[in-house]
Structure formats: structure tokens, C-alpha cells
Design goal:
68% of the residues lie in helices and 0% in strands. The chain contains 8 helices and no strands.
Length: 187
Amino acid sequence: MAAPAGFRPRLAAPALLDRSTAVLCVLAAAGIVLQQELRIPLQVPGHRGLLWLGLLVAVRLAARRPGPTLAVAISSAALIAGLRLAPEGPLTALPYVLAGALLDATALVPWLVRRPWAVAGLAAPIHLVALVTPAWRSLLVGVAPTALAQGLTSVALLDLCFGAGAGVLGWGLATAWGSRLGRDAGR
């Protein structure tokens, strides 16, 4: 029996993530939680963002669509808060979620989807979300906004530098992840 002329067969819904991107998401979330547990006291503000933001950038570039980066950020933040790994409280994990949301937003801009170098470059200003928690705490205890701005200037500059490094690291990880998968598929 022939199908009617206007009939179109239903195609299976596309998978939200391919297997390799899902593995990268799990590894990135584990890496973010692990770096929160293994705090290395370098006494340089923003140095930890090199790893956690780099992993989020790698997920964003590997996934090439919105959703996975924010999912990794939320799951990491939830694990960190649930396991009480944040010494300053659960609010410490807020920058992960904010950075994940901002990185996912870049996947909605068509010009940025095809330019991983631009997403890597945006990691520098995105890393400024790390200042949200300390700024909020300072304002709550009565630090004047002008004093806060003066005190956070050098910290913001370091965050920009480490954010730029995280962008480069994430771009490199995503490129290595993709090229490794290409080599494995050819075997």
C-alpha cells in the first residue's frame, strides 16, 4: 500500500549528546569537583579558574550546542555544594553556573558557533563571574562600593588573565578531544 502524497515518515529524534561528548561532560564535571577538593594554595587570585573554566570551554566547543556546558556547571555546583567541598558555603559554586550559562549563550549566536577562537577569547571576561561571590560578601558586611572596586581591580585583572588562559586551554582540550575521536573513528 502506498503512503499518501503529504505523508512524511517520522524520523527518530536526534540524540541530545553523542557518546564522546557525554564522556567529556562527565570527565569535566569530575575534574571541576576534584579541583575544588584538591585546593592548591598558590595565593594568586583566579588561578583555579584556569582549570574549571578551561573544562567548561572545552565542553562548550566540543558539544557545539547549548545545554551540555550548563549541565556540567550545574552538576558540578550541585556536587560541590552537596559534598560540602566549598569552604565558604554553597554560594562558592555560583560562578560555575554563571560561567556555564554565559558559555552556553555563545552557542546561540551563529557567528560564534563557527569560530572557536572567539569563544576561547570570551573566556577572559566570562571569568569575571568569579568576582560575584567575594563582591557580594563584601557588600553584605558593609564595604563601600568604591572601596570594593579599588580592592578588586588587581583581582579582576588576574581573573582576566587566567580566563584568557582557560580559553586557550579549553580550545586546546576540545581540539585534542575532537582529533583523538577522528583518529579512533578511522581505525
